[in-house]
Amino acid sequence: MGNWLLNELPKWILFTAWLALNIALFVNTYLSYMADKYVYLRVLIGHGLPFARSSAYIINVNSMLILLPVCRNLISFLRGTCGCCTRVRRQLDRNIIVHRFLAYWICLLSIIHTGAHCYNFEHFVLAHHSSDGLVQTLSNLPDGPNPIKEPNSDAIKALFKFIPGVTGIVLVLALVLMVSSSTNFIRRSYFEVFWFTHHLFVIYYIAIVIHGMQGVVKAQTNIDVHDPNVCRDQYDGGWGTATCPIPTFEGSSGSSWKWVVGPFALYLLERCVRLYRSFQPVTIHKVVKHPSRTIELLLKKPGFHAEVGQYVFLHCPKISQLEWHPFTLTSCPEDENISIHLRIVGDWTSALAMACGVDSDQQPEKLPRLAIDGPFGTASEDVFNYPVVLLVGAGIGVTPFASVLKSIWYKYNDENVQLKLEKVYFYWICPDTMSFEWFADLLKSLERQMVAKGLPQFLDYNIYLTRGWDANQARNIVLHEEAVYDVVTNLRHKTHYGRPNWEQIFSAMAAAHPATKIGVFLCGPKVLSPTLRQLCNRHSSVDTAGARFYFNKENF
Amino acid sequence: MRQIEWSMWANEQALTSALLTFIGGVMGITQVFKNWGFGLYGIIISILVGLFEYPRGKRMKGTTNERMYQRFITVALSKLGFFSQNYFIRFILYILIGVPCCFQLPIVLGGICFFCTSIIYFVAAMKGESWKPAGLEKPDRQGSQVVAGVVSNPPPVPPPRLPEDVAQSVLQRQMSGRRI
């Protein structure tokens, strides 16, 4: 229980606070629509109204919240300002999960809201045919609570005569299209579909602001002279007298804009920053070709500073005016140039490689203009806050660790920097080292430097090949079993085969580092995350004598 | 980025539309709304569409993430031949499905979503896509041999490891020994 608290408590505190806020607002709005000024409206449409309105209220609140986690600059800024409180900061890494969770919540609330309003609307239409005299009278009042005036109107045709009806359809449609195009499968396989469809959010927000403005839901304005609880039975001739004057009604104007305007402005600002950055000059210093269709871009941008493990969005107007692609920086803050390694796997990267003249032999006359948005932070900045760190990179997930490892090495060599970090364990798990030769090269150069400085044990790294080996490699492995350097990677540490035994690694680490904070950093596919998270919780001890593991995950 | 296959999105959109129509249909058969028969239509058609769209088609390139237990329906659908494979058929089908939805309030949104589905399927059909059954071909063990030095098989034997207790002590010794 105690171990669990360490890693998961802040998350659940936030969740509980959010849930409490939602419930409180729901109940509060529900009760406010049970007030006397809505008595006649409830006579017409029953309890559908408070349900629809309270869910609408929470939709507003969550539509406000859902924009915040996708404001990258805002999150980077927050991360920078709460430098001391790691626990709070680590919650910021879950931004996309929060965004998705809120989206599901909005969908559920939209179903409740739309369903309730379907009932309400049908009730308004049917009110003209009601046998109840009060309902008839209310429906026929010239400025009465029933927005539908014609007795024999068709519900669907009538729907299109109201702004809330039309905007409601637009809202649901925008939401459905956004949802259907952002399922995991579509997002991973056809990112453009997801990305462009998601911009329907602009329509969504415009519609949500207009949706309530017509004031179709009308509250009674003269309850002080016309008490509905007293006068409701005197509708037949009693209304219009001194005791019960004719009830008057007025629609409320929408208040959604108050909720969404702030975050929407923030997001707009975010996009303006991106637009501004797209005009800032970036020069390509050098293009290096690596094996396995990987190229390295060395860029220069004045005034650009990035922390370790951050990523940027790259934009090339020559290829596409609209597309921005995220890439992890492989340079560290101490490096002179910004460097990015990219694999040529898709249309955009191929076009970029072509534009840089990688595929052809002759140099292009002019390198393409590039723009950079960022840098944006991820969890790896926290590496320097722990005395011991365990870095786990799986597959493509090793990229952020390139800059982390480089930076650790630079900082370690700098006399002026007091490094809190004492020990680095690095685990690299991949199917085969092909396509990551550049990373092995980097490790190799680090290793050479460490040997030259007489510090070969500075870094403890383990490489695990999971997919196996062919006959040639097997022969090589056997032949070079005794050699100093590994045959696959040419590194001093021998390559392992299979998957790491995390249980063993964690208990060994806990035993080796008592009373120490250990930061665990994972970057890679999802499947590993729960395993490591559980192990972190299991092997942490609450008392100060034992090791404590803090789990951090990078999102891709 | 790979070439976009619009039918994959249309498939998701069809399922979402079916879900909306189902919810609307359930509301529609309550006594509040006129013409409850349309509500019933909504329920039945959404279940049928759900079954029809549940199996994901085979992607042109790369692996297809099949939905859970989709294989049973895939087999049935692949027997329908042209009807299940051509996306122009689906384009027309969803327009036809959507029309009756426009006569009752709760399922009208489902109907409009079906029209969207049909538009996306039209785009897919224009791009020359068609539905192909996924996951029905026999897994051939001989087929996955070493191709040009790339190892595609997982190792048949587990990696040589020290016995559990020995490994543990070795690891501990290594970790406590190496400090910088």
From TrEMBL, chain A:
Keyword check for Transcription: no
Main localization of the protein described in the UniProt heading: membrane
Alphabetical keyword list: Membrane, Oxidoreductase, Transmembrane, Transmembrane helix
Membrane topology reported for the UniProt record: Multi-pass membrane protein
Pfam families per record: FAD_binding_8 (PF08022), Ferric_reduct (PF01794), NAD_binding_6 (PF08030)
Compartment(s) of residence: Membrane
Catalytic activity: NADPH + 2 O2 = 2 superoxide + NADP(+) + H(+)
InterPro entries, A to Z: Cyt_b245_heavy_chain, FAD-bd_8, FAD-bd_FR_type, Fe3_Rdtase_TM_dom, Fe_red_NAD-bd_6, FNR_nucleotide-bd, RBOH/FRE, Riboflavin_synthase-like_b-brl
TM regions (residue ranges): 12-35, 55-75, 96-116, 162-181, 193-213
Domain FAD-binding FR-type per the UniProt entry, residue ranges: 277-382
PANTHER family to which the protein is assigned, alphabetical: FAD-BINDING FR-TYPE DOMAIN-CONTAINING PROTEIN, NADPH OXIDASE
Protein name: Cytochrome b-245 heavy chain-like
From TrEMBL, chain B:
Subunit field text: Component of the phagocyte NADPH oxidase core complex/cytochrome b558 complex, composed of CYBB (heavy chain (beta)) and CYBA (light chain (alpha)). Component of the phagocyte NADPH oxidase complex composed of an obligatory core heterodimer formed by the membrane proteins CYBA and CYBB and the cytosolic regulatory subunits NCF1/p47-phox, NCF2/p67-phox, NCF4/p40-phox and the small GTPase RAC1 or RAC2. Interacts with NCF1 (via SH3 domain). Interacts with SH3PXD2A. Interacts with DUOX1, DUOX2 and TPO. Interacts with NOX4; this interaction mediates superoxide generation.
Protein family (similarity comment): Belongs to the p22phox family.
Region (Disordered): 135-164
Gene: LOC106807737
Protein name: Cytochrome b-245 light chain
Keywords, alphabetical: Cell membrane, Membrane, Transmembrane, Transmembrane helix
Ranges that cross the membrane: 38-55, 76-97, 103-124
Subcellular location: Cell membrane
Domain of life (superkingdom): Eukaryota
Species in which this protein is naturally found: Priapulus caudatus (Priapulid worm)
